[in-house]
Design a protein that fits this description.
The structure is a homodimer.
Chain A: E1 2-4, H1 5-10, H2 13-22, E2 27-28, E3 30-35, E4 41-46, E5 50-54, E6 57-63, H3 72-80, E7 82-87, H4 93-97, H5 109-112, E8 117-118, E9 127-128, E10 133-145, E11 150-162, E12 181-184, E13 188-197
Antiparallel strand pairs in A: 2-12, 3-4, 3-7, 5-6, 6-11, 7-10, 8-9, 10-11, 12-13
Chain lengths: 210, 210
């Protein structure tokens, strides 16, 4: 099957949306937790969290334009300066998926989707109690992407809170054992099975593949 | 386990690198194929490919600074204006992993890692023959990320070439059936098992989670 740019442009809108959202492969499934100045919590699923650097530790995520629809997550981050990123655990994929419904501003997705907030001292934003990987973020920068009007939101890591036994002495996380899931396209969820682990790729240790 | 910003700053470098590269969850495994003006091919694994928009179809990926080490992928993209993104199939994870070794400029990772290039008419950059999802990209924009000096490279989709049977009539890709894999941290690879599929989250159709 070969789709050209023109095929995509003239394709049915939903077909294009599903296809183009799927072609990058499996994406991480995370819930972003925020709180408003009035103390209203908000929770939203994102598949666009991305690693930007380890020292200092920076993560990014992509938001659609703010002009067309209200973006409670965006507004809360910019006002409060803190947010959380929480891995979606396998038993909670349906709850997490439906946080993307357009709930009213006064409705918290924590309540509507039966997901439980938890807090740590001196950090405003709510974490997801059930999540095996909870990350407390400080907002750093907002980068407009001229090509299509989306926004790259960048933050630095202030806290990493892990389920017991998830990290080993090398810093590796047991994603499969931690019931961490991935997303395909807009609506499919995947569990993980580890199939390989390879060392840092030194030139002198490249296997003979011939 | 709770790591604060200070814990991360004072941690062993490799521990921090492994941990912070793992905390976003599972990442897509893709090979970026490029060619130089002299016709030398290059292939490199990236776990930072990200969806930016569907209409027009835009994808991005993150590169580390170009000042410290040669970045053949970057140079080729900027000069030629075309590149390919190719999903790593399960039987090829070790080959794909070792494309990250620092091969000399005159060495092609296609040859060293026994991965096969393939071409289509009127498109310079090489695709990966064995890949179930091949994407032909036109370079659009380079966005410097001030926070840590990385670069977000943005391109538009010109071609999508899929293995037979991978896409259904709705535009959904069968990632698990296509042997598409994910990456954890810097060196772990995961196969996928589909565990859920949910409809677009309409407010009127949110399940009663209570």
């Amino acid at each position: 099957m070969h789709f050209t740019r023109k095929d995509l442009e003239t394709a049915d809108r939903k077909f294009r949306l599903n296809l183009v959202n799927s072609i990058t492969g499996v994406k991480p499934a995370n819930l972003i937790g925020t709180i408003s100045e009035e103390g209203r919590t908000n929770l939203a699923i994102f598949s666009s969290i991305i690693h930007l650097g380890s020292n200092p530790a920076f993560l990014g995520f992509v938001m659609r334009p703010t002009a067309d629809v209200p973006r409670h997550t965006y507004e809360n981050i910019v006002k409060i300066g803190r947010y959380t990123i929480n891995a979606v655990p396998l038993p909670m994929i349906e709850n997490a998926h439906f946080t993307s419904a357009k709930f009213d501003r006064h409705v918290s997705e924590f309540e509507s989707c039966n997901i439980h907030p938890t807090y740590i001292d001196d950090f405003d934003a709510p974490f997801v109690l059930e999540s095996p990987i909870k990350i407390g973020m400080k907002w750093e920068e907002e980068i407009p992407i001229k090509s299509n009007g989306t926004i790259l939101m960048i933050g630095s890591v202030e806290h990493i809170i892990l389920e017991d036994g998830l990290v080993n002495e090398k810093g590796y996380l047991n994603l499969a054992g931690g019931n961490v899931v991935g997303i395909g396209g807009l609506n499919r969820y995947f569990s993980l099975k580890q199939v390989g682990e390879f060392p840092y790729a030194r030139l002198s240790e490249v296997p003979d593949f011939s």
